[in-house]
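Sharing a chain and its predicted structure for anyone who wants a worked example. Both blocks are below, sequence first, tokens second.
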Amino acid sequence: MQRRPGRRTLASATAVLVASSVALVVPVTATASPVRSTGVSGAIVVQAPASKADRARRAAVLKVRRERRARWAKVRVHRPATWIRTSVGHTTPAPGPHFNNPYGSRASERALLDQVIAAIDGSPGYRRPVDPGTHRPVACPTSPRAFPSRIRIAVYSIADRHVAEAVVAAQQRCVSVQILMNSHLTAVTSPSWGMIARALGPRGPEPARQRSFAHRCSNGCLGSAVLHSKLFLFSHAGRSRDTVMVGSSNMARNATDIQWNDLYTVNGNRRLYAEYAGVFSRMAPDVRGGGPRVYRAGPYTSTFYPFRRATSRTDLTMRALRSIRCSGATGGAGIGGHSVLYVAMHSWHGVRGRYLAERVRQMYDRGCFVRILYSFMSYDVYSLLRSGSGRRMTVRRVLFPGPKGVVAAKYAHLKMFAASGRVAGDRSSWVTWTGSNNWTDRGTRSDEVTLRIPSAAVYAAYVRQWKVIRHRRSSPVWATFLEPTGGGRAP
């Protein structure tokens, strides 16, 4: 038999009766005398009155709920302007240079891919309302004016499931997502690309008016070799607007645990963003086009290839190297009055590689300090640079094979060079060039981009990374190995 508790009062007290696996909440008026139950394994728990902080928290929760109900009350199914905006994340892309480390932790390997994923997740979309007739979410708007945000990506390869999942989620919340990729991968060889292609759909006859599409450019979009650019454009990402990311990183496994890569991020430069969006629009029809195109936006200068008729006289990379003079450096730039050139180059060979190497060697002969890291370099170029050179010339390989000694397992994929000293008439200058353009013959026939950044801080960041790569593992002995297949490259 169960005893009834005495009837004594305590304001706001509550008892929770737990018996077996069933929890009951009952009001309690007795606290002075013990309260017992004879259930299977029951107990009476008496709670004290809610504190002021607890009441404040509960009031805040109720306020948020009321505001949410009020927002939903304003939603009109066929008026996207009234829909509630939402995003998966709220990370604002950090401006400046970013790097990964293929020898590091999983997080440091994936640093650049995760940076792009965070920007995709931070792109606002819509919480689609439910159509009362069909009881299903309504379709995303088709008018460009109603797109909540835009993502534009042009990249050599996509073969990463996490990137694909972020793209699909953005598409589902009505973000305008347009992606161009080179044609060496398909939905079969890259299931991640297959996910994206199915979610975004094919490019139509008027890509500028489409909300989303995924398209493989046939051996390049404007170029006639490959789509080799790595452009990531976000109209909104977190709290930033008009974000541009440029560098060497593809969205694939090779870019994480095999290659050293970089991405340089610019936020809030509307002119730069518009220039890159314009180039993307010219690439989207997948029709051969001319070049080069050079744009200036604030401190930045962007050079877009193809430049099929480039020669040693007209090549804009050669022009950049010629802008560096080896003597007359002042103001703390250079070393002892001489300019310094740092190079980290993934591929350096061919006719173009030879004439660029001749210019670099000429700079050394004229007093410049030259520091080079390379992955795939012809022996012809290596011999030209090293033969008869002294301590002012450093040429080191960062390409190393796997266990069988045949296929490359680690290497630098950057395509950057940086100068400190006398550059473009400025005797106290620090300039970095980075992007997708290798120093090869194909580099003039492909879709490529190079971003020029005049900044002492950016120069210092790239030189620090150059030294990290050198000291992690490098060799003065020339060698070459096969580039690995899969992981973003053709199988």
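Comments welcome. Confidence is low (pLDDT under 50) at residues 1-40.
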